[in-house]
Specification:
The chain is α/β, with parallel strands linked by helices. The protein is built from 14 helices and 30 strands. 50% of the residues are buried.
């Protein structure tokens, strides 16, 4: 194998690249670091480059040199960048390789996965694979219209899912579907159900399947468990062709301590903090990135850029933002204050703002979404006014309070009315995304349907009410797979969701309810155009805690379309219950969760009714409604421009 000796490459990495790298402003490192097929002096081969500034020696090992650790050393660049590089001729796509790194003191020697690999072996193997990302995209129309589909004024209903457990092939040992198989089934299902987006739990390569992807090591490679990078591109492409946006869960908050990964990479704490009080997280038993290093920030921002650039991702949901913001997050007394004596992680805040500024500058038609569970101010506000710069924030408060309320027996709900109504007080403090995510249906918490009180009929009625209330409430929408089936068992990542339940009429009814909610939501501008401004909302009555009934209006941007939502959180049916409305005329009942087709008792208003000239709730007109048990009504009124003048 002597003919494969490393030869000096042409300037694949330029001095300008290393200048940007050292100053912290190179955000397309995936184009320079890692393994890249190229041609040097007329010979095709692979250029390797890896950041390991404290290493004594770095070499490339693989089948091509019988894994001999000394045969193909890399050279350290002259300008103190810490980058080792070299070109090996005659290597081809598909070659498995690793880096063998010897620390500066010579005592630490280890085989490492390439941090910038585009493709990796299937776990538990951890070799990186030389690969190209060539692909002929066919989503031109989607990309052209993406700014409209991802707008804060657009309807956004997200189906959160775990690729490995959405559907399994029973005949083949319950194996997960591949990316290509998903590309056949998933886009059609989501389009049929009316979702606008899908959010995948992390697809970035990870060593332990049971982590659901939240222990990421391959920040530039989709997991090989389900196919090649091109197979994943094909899945995204097919989703886009069916009008479905793709959001990827992304984890810049921590990484696992597997020896072949980022931890102690060159014999020093390179990617993570050396002090365990800042560099190790006890909750996840994982390492925490050192956001104070230019190169680490560039690594992470380059990863975010990569998924937008090479895989056409429409957004990133950034995991565990709260753990990044606070130095004392879940640490008890074992933490180090910042230079001002506070608990805020100033370096992480700088990183988050730089991340969002960079993504929106390069991909302004995408969305950055924060999973942030505290009352930190300005998460979804621009950085130039002191915010963190995200486009949206998960509304964890709404989720918690609503599920606490819904879990109560209806006879006690009147004592917990504030849990239901509190979210409206802060609904416009952030650009909120309402989430009923995977976190709420694991670790003994039970499925959504199982959280509901009462007998089976009441549980499903409560679930319909919960989902209907969610779609009427200001904010974008997300729920985890299985909710649309009224799954009884909590989610298990080794099993498919409970598709078999659809043989039963009550579960068919829940699925149809979710489908109709999605289509109603997308068709009614009043339900989405002004999600993030108070002008899009007006309460009618939140004071009837004795009967656990609330009512409110949602309004379109031009004020000419209004939807009235009326929710009854008790099993009582009300006849002739007056609800004040701002205008006369016919109010059409566009959705009723108690309709028989959904599994309800068919209590309703015959498709709509005329407003009476009878003042109620401070409004000049009223509707004498039949309000169904454990149900939600949505009634619509189209308002003429003349009538619109009387509306706030």
């Amino acid at each position: 194998m002597n003919e494969l000796a490393i030869i000096k490459p042409d300037p694949f990495i330029t001095d300008h690249d290393t200048h940007l790298f050292k100053e912290g402003n190179h955000f397309k490192l995936y184009e320079k670091l890692g393994a890249h097929l190229t041609v040097v002096d007329g010979r095709s081969g692979v250029h390797f480059a890896v950041w390991a500034p404290n290493a004594k020696k770095v070499s490339v090992i693989g089948n091509f040199n019988n894994w001999q650790r000394e045969s193909h050393p890399l050279s350290l660049r002259w300008n103190s960048s810490g980058i080792w590089e070299g070109f090996i001729p005659d290597l081809n796509k598909g070659e498995v390789y690793k880096y063998f790194i010897t620390s500066g003191n010579g005592h630490y020697k280890v085989e490492k996965q390439d941090p910038f690999a585009f493709y990796n072996e299937v776990a538990p193997h951890f070799g990186s694979i030389v690969w190209q990302l060539d692909y002929e995209w066919r989503d031109t129309q989607w990309m052209k219209d993406r700014h409209q589909n991802n707008s804060l004024n657009a309807p956004i209903s997200i189906y959160e899912m775990h690729i490995g457990s959405w559907k399994r092939v029973v005949e083949e040992g319950h194996r997960p579907l591949t990316y290509r198989e998903l590309a056949v089934e998933l886009p059609e299902y989501l389009e049929y159900m009316g979702y606008t987006h899908v959010e995948f739990l992390p697809v970035m390569e990870y060593p332990f399947y049971g982590s659901w992807g939240y222990q990421t090591l391959g920040y530039f490679s989709p997991t090989s468990r389900f196919g090649t990078p091109q197979d994943f591109m094909y899945l995204v492409d097919c989703l886009h062709q069916h009008g479905i946006g793709v959001i990827l869960d992304w984890v810049p908050s921590h990484f696992p301590t597997d020896e072949h990964g980022l931890v102690y990479f060159d014999g020093t704490h390179l990617f993570e903090h050396a002090d365990s009080r800042k560099g190790y997280h006890p909750d996840w038993k994982s390492s925490i990135f050192n956001y104070g290093r230019n190169e680490v920030r560039e690594f992470l921002i380059s990863s975010a850029m990569f998924w937008m650039d090479k895989f056409h991702a429409d957004g990133l949901r950034v995991d565990a933002v709260a753990s990044m913001l606070y130095l004392d997050y879940s640490r008890g007394d074992a933490w180090i204050p910042n230079q001002y004596g506070g608990r805020e992680n100033i370096e992480a805040i700088f990183f988050i703002r730089k991340l969002n500024e960079t993504i929106y500058a390069n991909f302004p038609d995408t969305q950055m979404i924060a999973e942030e569970s505290t009352a930190w101010g300005g998460v979804s506000r621009p950085t130039f006014v002191g915010g963190l710069g995200f486009g949206m924030k998960w509304n964890m408060g709404w989720m918690h309070d609503t599920l606490v309320y819904m879990s109560k027996d209806p006879i006690y709900r009147k004592y917990h009315h504030n849990d239901l109504t509190f979210s409206f007080l802060y609904a416009y403090s952030e650009n909120f995304l309402l989430s009923l995510s995977h976190d709420e249906v694991v670790h003994g918490k039970g499925a959504l349907a199982g959280k509901m009180p009462g007998d089976k009929w009441q549980k499903l009625a409560n679930l319909r009410l919960l989902l209907g209330y969610m779609f009427a409430h200001p904010g974008k929408k997300l729920h985890f797979m299985g909710a649309e089936l009224a799954q009884w068992a909590e989610w298990k990542h080794e099993h498919s969701i409970e598709w078999h339940l659809l043989q039963y009429a009550p579960h068919q009814g829940i699925q149809k309810w979710v489908k109709d909610l999605n289509y109603c939501y997308r068709n009614e501008r009043a339900l989405f155009e002004r999600d993030f401004v108070p002008e899009g909302f007006e309460f009618i009555d939140f004071g009837d805690y004795q009967n656990s009934i609330i009512s409110f209006l949602r309004k379109s941007a031009d004020g000419q379309s209004v939807v009235l939502a009326v929710c009854n959180f008790t099993p009582s049916t009300w006849k002739g219950y007056s609800i004040g409305v701002p205008t006369e005329g016919y109010w059409k009942e566009i959705l009723n969760s108690d309709a028989g087709v959904y599994g309800g008792s068919n209590q309703g208003n015959g498709g709509g009714l005329e407003a009476e000239p009878k003042a109620c709730h401070g409004k000049p007109y009223s509707l004498p409604l039949t309000i169904p048990p454990l149900g939600i009504l949505l009634l619509k009124k189209d308002i003429s421009p003349e009538e619109n003048l009387t509306l706030p």
